[in-house]
Design a protein that fits this description.
Chains A, B: Belongs to the TrkH potassium transport family. Chains A, B: One of its GO terms (cellular component) is plasma membrane. Chains A, B: One of its GO terms (molecular function) is potassium:chloride symporter activity. Two copies of one chain form a homodimer. By secondary structure, chain A is mainly alpha-helical. The first copy, chain A, has a domain of 94 residues. Helices cover 64% and strands 1% of the residues of chain A. Chain A contains 19 helices and two strands. Chain A has a two-stranded antiparallel ribbon with strand order 1-2. The longest helix of chain A is centred in the N-terminal third of the chain and has 29 residues. The relative contact order of chain A is 0.11. Bound molecules: potassium ion (2 copies). One potassium ion binds next to loops of chain A.
C-alpha cells in the first residue's frame, strides 16, 4: 500500500527550502533597488503557504520512504518545485506562465534553453534566480544520482551502488555524510570557478552567475552573447570547469579522502576525457583547415570549448557551431546525446552506457564463433550482469522512444524537421541549444508554441530523471499490490 | 587453421552460376536485337574464366565449411560476385566502374538506389539484368538468413535456429530440402505477382521486371517515374506483394506443408502487420486532412503504398513523400531503419529486434521495484536468454556506429547533413531512396562523388550481412588460433 502522506511531507520540506532560497534574489532586488521585489515577495509567500499546507497535511512518521514512495517522490518533486519556482518570472515579467515554467524547468533540470532575451540589461535579481535554479538543480540531481537512482537500479545504475546508496537503517549516517561531502565539494568548486572567472575579467556578479551555471553544466548566461561576451582566458577557464562539472562529483570526494588521484583509475573518467580530447582535436584540425587565417590556438579554443560545452551538456554558446559547415553540424548532432559521467550534473545517455555496450560487443564478437564460450566482461572491476544489460536496453529504447514522440509532436506544431529533432534531443539530454537558425546557439526558444514549450519541459524532466524513473510509475504493475 | 581453398572453390561455383545467369539478359539482347550483346558476351566470358580459376585453385574436399570459413565466405561472396556482375553495365554503358559497381551492389543487396536515368528508353537487356540481380540477391539472402545466420547467431538470430540451420552432417538433406522449398515458393510468388501486374495493365516485360523487384523488396523499376507510372490497381497489387516480400518466406513453406494459416501465430508477422496498418492509417488520415480535395481512398493508397514500400525496404517511389510536409518527412525518416521480418528479403533493424527490446523493457519495468524478481520474458515461446540480449546490444551499437561513420564520410564529400544522414540510413537498411531533393524518391544517386558511391556500396553490403558477420571477421581474435 502506498502511503502518500510521507511523500507530501517531504515535498513540503522541499517547498519550504525553495521559499528560503527565494530570499536570495529578493536581497539582490533590494540591494540593487530593482522593481522586482514585489514579485519575489509574492512568490515567497505563495510558496511558503503551499509548503506549510504540505507539511501539515503530510506525515513525518518515518525517515525512510519505501521504494515505491521514493519513485513517486523523485518524479513529482522536480515538477512541483518548478511550478512554484516559476512564479517570480511570471509575476515580474508579465510573461505567460508557459514561458515562465519552461524557463524554470530548463533551469532546475540544468538544460539552459531560454525564452528570455535582453539578458544584458535584465534585473540582477532575475538573473541570479535563473543561475541559482541551475545551481540547486545540479546538486539536487547529483545527490539523487548518487543516493537514490543506484538504489532503484535505474538504467544500469546499480553499477554505481555504493555504501552511500545502501538504504538500510544502519547506513543513514553514512549517506548523510556523503551528501554533506558532496555539497562541500560542490561549493568549493563553485567558489574556485567564480574566483577564476573574476581574475579572467568578469565582474563579481558575472563571475558568480557563470560559476553557478558552469559547475551545474546548466548553461544560463547573463549575456545574450553567452560566453563569446567574455575574454579568451575566461573561455578556457569555462572549458576546464565544465569538464569538472561533467566528472562524477563523488570522485573529488574520494580524491580528497584518500589523498590520491585515483580519478585516473576510473574507467568512466578516463573514457570521458579521452573521448573529449579526441573529438576536440579532430574538430580543431578540421576548423583550422577550413577557416583560412585562423590561429591554431583559436581553432583549438573554439573546438574544445564547444565540444566540452555540448558533451557535458552545458550548452554555452561560443559562435554558432552549427553554422561552421556540414561536418561540424553532423558532429554536434551526434554529440548532443552522448552526455558525460554518471554522478555528474550533466544529462544525456552518459559515457558508461556506451562503455558497457562496447564491452558487451567486444565480448560478443569474441564468443561469436565459440558458441559455448562464457561471457565474462567486466566494467570498472564489476562484472556486467544480465540485469545491467537488460536495464541498458530498456534505457536506450525508452530514450529513443521519448525523442521520437517529442519530435513528432513538435513537427505537428509546425516546426521544421531538423529543428524539431534537435529540440527533442537537446531537451531530453539537457544540453540547451539545438541546431539551426531558430533554436541554435544564436537563437532562442521564445518563438515556439506553448504546446512545444510544455512538451519540451516534460522532455527535460524525463531526461533529468533518466526516463526509467517515470516509466516505472506509469507501469500498471507499479500500482498493483 | 583456416583453409581458404574450400572457400575459393565455393566462390568459384557462385561465379559460374553468375555467368550462367548472364545468358538471360544476353538472350533478351538477341531477341530485341539490341547493341548490348557484346557487353554481355564479354562479361560472361570474363566471369567464366574467373570461375574456372577459382574452381581449379580451390578444393572440393568437404561439403561442410567450418564456422570460420563460413563467416569468410558469407562476407566476400557478395562483394566478389558484385565485382563481376557490374561488368555488363560498364562494358555497354561506358559509365565509370564506380557507377557500375554501385548499381550492382545496390541490386544484389536489394537496396535499389540507382545512378541511371532514362530508364523508360533503356535497353531491355540492361533492365532485365538489373531486375534479375535483385531477384537473385533476394533469394540468396533468404537462404543465407534461414540457413547460415542463425547458425552463426548473428544479432540474436539464434532465436530463428531451426532444424534447417543445424549444420551437423545428418541434417544436410533437410537443409537442402528447405532451400528447394524456399526457391519454389519464391518462384511461385514471383509468378503470381507478375500475372497480377499484367492483369493490372503492365506489359509482360514490365510485369516480369517489377515482379522480380517487388518480391525481392529491391525496388528497381523500368520507369524513371517508378510505380507512379502505372495504374492504381497495379499500385495496390504492389503494396500487397511488397508486404508478402517483407514476411519470412519460410512461413509460406510451413503454411503449405501444414495446410494452415499458422502465419498468424507468429509474433513477428502479427507485430509487423499491425505496425504497418497503424502507421498507414495515421498517415492516410493526416494526408487526407492536410491535402484538400483528396479522395479518402487515394490518401489510403498513397499512405499504405509508401509506408509499406519504406518499411519493407522496397523503396518504390510514388510521389515524393518527403515533400508532403514536415510530419511525413520525420515519420519516413524514422521508418527508414525499422525493417520487416527476419527471414524475408528486406533489410533494416527488423521487427523482431524491436519486439525483443520491448519484451525486455516490459519485464525490466516490472522487476524494477522487486530487486529480487526473476526475469522470464519469452518471445515466440522461446525464452530470451542473456546471449540474445547481448547480441541485440551488439547489433544496435554496430548499426548506429556504421550509420554515423558513413554519414560523417558523406558530409566530408560536401553533401548536406540531411542528405548524408538519410543516404547512410537508406543504404545500411537497404531501402533505396533517401530524403530530400538530391536522393529522395524523385532524385537519383548519380550526382554523388565516387567516394560517396563506394562508401554507400559498402554500407549496403554491411547492412545486408547484418553487420556483425563482417565485424566478426575484422575482430583480431577471429584470426588467432
Ligand atoms: K545544459
Ligand atoms: K530496396
Amino acid at each position: 500500500m502506498i502511503n502518500f502522506r510521507p511523500v507530501v511531507f517531504t515535498l513540503g520540506t522541499f517547498l519550504s527550502m525553495l521559499s528560503g532560497f527565494m530570499l536570495i534574489p529578493l536581497s539582490f532586488s533590494l540591494i540593487y533597488a530593482e522593481d522586482t521585489s514585489i514579485a519575489f515577495i509574492q512568490a515567497t509567500v505563495l510558496t511558503s503557504i503551499a509548503a506549510s499546507i504540505c507539511i501539515h497535511q503530510g506525515q513525518k512518521s518515518r525517515i525512510h520512504l519505501n521504494i515505491r514512495e521514493m519513485f513517486i517522490l523523485t518524479s513529482i518533486t522536480w515538477f512541483v518545485v518548478s511550478l512554484f519556482a516559476a512564479l517570480p518570472f511570471t509575476f515580474y515579467h508579465g510573461i505567460t506562465y508557459s514561458d515562465a515554467f519552461f524557463e524554470t524547468m530548463s533551469g532546475v533540470t540544468t538544460t539552459g534553453s531560454t525564452v528570455l532575451s535582453g539578458l544584458d540589461d535584465m534585473a540582477h535579481s532575475i538573473l541570479i534566480w535563473r543561475s541559482l535554479l541551475q545551481w540547486l538543480g545540479g546538486i539536487g540531481f547529483i545527490v539523487m544520482a548518487v543516493a537514490v537512482l543506484p538504489f532503484l537500479n535505474v538504467g544500469g545504475m546499480r553499477l554505481f551502488r555504493t555504501e552511500s546508496s545502501d538504504w538500510s537503517d544502519k547506513s543513514t549516517p553514512r549517506t548523510q555524510d556523503m551528501a554533506k561531502n558532496l555539497f562541500f565539494i560542490y561549493i568549493l568548486l563553485s567558489l574556485a570557478c567564480a574566483l577564476s572567472y573574476h581574475l579572467a575579467g568578469m565582474t563579481w556578479f558575472e563571475a558568480i552567475n557563470h560559476a553557478m551555471t558552469t559547475i551545474s553544466t546548466g548553461g544560463y548566461s547573463t549575456s545574450d552573447q553567452s560566453m563569446s561576451h567574455f575574454s579568451h582566458s575566461a573561455q578556457w577557464i569555462s572549458t576546464l570547469f565544465m569538464l569538472a562539472g561533467g566528472l562524477p562529483l563523488i570522485i573529488f570526494v574520494q580524491c580528497i579522502a584518500l589523498r590520491t588521484l585515483l580519478v585516473w583509475k576510473d574507467a568512466q573518467v578516463v573514457g570521458f576525457v579521452k573521448f573529449l580530447a579526441f573529438v576536440s582535436i579532430v574538430l580543431a584540425v578540421w576548423y583550422w583547415f577550413t577557416h583560412d587565417g585562423t590561429h591554431p590556438l583559436d581553432a583549438l579554443r573554439l573546438a574544445a570549448f564547444n565540444v566540452v560545452s555540448v558533451v557535458t551538456t552545458t550548452g554555452y554558446g561560443l559562435t554558432d557551431y552549427g553554422a561552421w559547415g556540414a561536418f561540424s553540424f553532423i558532429i554536434f548532432l551526434f554529440l548532443m546525446s552522448v552526455g558525460s559521467c554518471s554522478g555528474s550534473t550533466s544529462g544525456g545517455i552518459k559515457i558508461f552506457r556506451f562503455q558497457i555496450a562496447f564491452a558487451i560487443m567486444r565480448e560478443q564478437l569474441k564468443v561469436q564463433f565459440h558458441p559455448n564460450g562464457v561471457f565474462t566482461e567486466k566494467y570498472n572491476n564489476r562484472s556486467i550482469q544480465p540485469d545491467i544489460v537488460r536495464s541498458l536496453v530498456t534505457f536506450m529504447l525508452l530514450y529513443a522512444a521519448v525523442v521520437i514522440v517529442i519530435t513528432i509532436i513538435l513537427v505537428l506544431t509546425h516546426l521544421d524537421p531538423m529543428t524539431s529533432l534537435t529540440a527533442a534531443l537537446t531537451a531530453v539530454a539537457n544540453v540547451g541549444p539545438g541546431l539551426g537558425d531558430i533554436i541554435g546557439p544564436s537563437g532562442n526558444f521564445s518563438s515556439l508554441s506553448d504546446t512545444a514549450k510544455w512538451v519540451l519541459s516534460i522532455g527535460m524532466l524525463l531526461g533529468r530523471l533518466e526516463i526509467i524513473t517515470v516509466a516505472v510509475i506509469i507501469h500498471p504493475k507499479f500500482w498493483k499490490f
